[in-house]
Amino acid sequence: MSQIIKTKAFVLSKLDFGDTSKIANFYTEDLGRISGIIKGARSPKSKIGKTVDLLNYVDLVLYKKEGRDIQIITQADLIEYYPNIKSDLEKLKYASAVIELLLRLTVENDQHRRLFIGVEKILQRMEDETTQPILLFSMFIKFFLEEIGYGLETDKCSLCQKSLLNSGNVSYNHEHGLMCKSCSENHLVLFEFSMELFNKMVCLSQRNSKCSYKENELIEIITFFERVLIYHIDEFQGIKSLKIY
Ligand SMILES: [Zn+2]
């Protein structure tokens, strides 16, 4: 049975299909990540073909059929096209990284409303604010790991349960997660945070945080989260968007 569904969506990718159509990937509010075909989208007269473009935020209408991999998109209306992001290379780099995480690391047909709202917020902040895009992305990637189940326990050492906040340097390996200084002496260490960097990493999740960051600290934090993802997810080898720009 097929159903008509109206849902908000971010356009993650788009490619030509046959002589006249396009197939796009969307991250939707109600269905999670889906693929959809837009018939006739390659015609210059197709309004929907133009609306469904990379990094646009749209209202979609689609025919959804259980068991079908590609849904049929019948209507798309623009909510936001993020002109400031698209005209600023630094903003575009980090917004593309957000889109890439959704495209490559979310499960198809898995509704995840908190993640959807998080994406909506971070893209709007990149669009509207002068806050460094790399800082907004650092906040997003930490949130993203937590939402897809790879969040880290940052309150206490995974081995002795002591608080990590005043433990001296904090170490990490994939097997145990975050460890205090004394526990780390007997274990393999893949990544070591200075106390200052560790506190700043934790601070990324705090609303109205007063932490300030240097660019190289944020690069270090992003690289750390990227390594956690690479370890847990087989086909994933890092965020390409961060290397292209
Ligand atoms: Zn410990």
UniProtKB/TrEMBL annotation:
GO cellular component, one term: bacterial nucleoid
Key word DNA repair present: yes
Residue ranges annotated for the DNA replication/recombination mediator RecO N-terminal domain, each copy included: 1-82
GO biological process: DNA recombination; double-strand break repair
Pfam families tied to this protein: RecO_C, RecO_N
Keyword tags: DNA damage, DNA recombination, DNA repair
PANTHER family, alphabetized: DNA REPAIR PROTEIN RECO (PTHR33991)
Protein family: Belongs to the RecO family.
Protein name according to UniProt: DNA repair protein RecO
